[in-house]
Amino acid sequence: MKLGICCDHAGFELKEYLKQELGKRADIDEIIDFGTNSTDSCDYPDYAHPCAEALEKGEIYPAIGICGSGNGISMTLNKHQGVRAAICWNKELAELARQHNDANCLVLSARFITRETALECAQAFLDTPFEGGRHERRVAKIACSK
User: Fold this and answer.
1) How far is CA 118 from the centre of its chain?
2) Tens digits of residue pLDDT in 65-77
3) Pairing outcome for strands 63-67 and 30-33
4) Residue 43 and residue 30 in contact, taking contact as beta carbons nearer than 8 Å
5) What's the pTM value of the predicted model, to 2 decimals?
């Protein structure tokens, strides 16, 4: 598995923690870091768009996005047709995002959850498969037709 991860300045410390912890998993071959690389103020779209593009192209799967609230980076990631980014603040939401929505990007709000909760969310997200079945029809309707 090639996991992609991106963040803004508010999510930098949490991103670094998750890279360290998730890097210990046997099922993760590589973590591709799309930045940012410091706590200096920056704009989350500069990091979310390249991560989303890599996810759409199949260069990474899945991805994690982190910003202060989770909202801005989620909005940016979800502008891409091939991305289903879900903001999660507990393990149960992360599981449901995968099971019911086939989310391919976990979004975390660095200013509102602990490192431990973020790791729990990430582990649950990575470990939970999509259920398919009745959910497939709904997921197929998410993308906008052109």
Assistant:
1) 11
2) 999 999 999 999 9
3) unpaired
4) no
5) 0.96
DSSP characters over 39-76: SS---THHHHHHHHHHHHHTSSBSEEEEESSSHHHHHH
What are the contacts of 112-115 at 24+ separation with CB within 8 A? 112/69, 112/70, 113/89, 115/14, 115/17
Closest CA to 79 of 27, 29, 44, 35: 44
**CA dist 3 to 107, 134, 135, Å?**
13, 27, 24
- 1 membership: H or E segment, kind and range: none
Active site residues: 67, 100
- Residues facing residue 106 across a β-bridge: 64, 86
Angle between helices 12-22 and 115-127 (to 10 degrees): 50
pLDDT digits (tens, 9 = 90+) for 4-37: 999 999 999 999 999 999 999 999 999 999 999 9
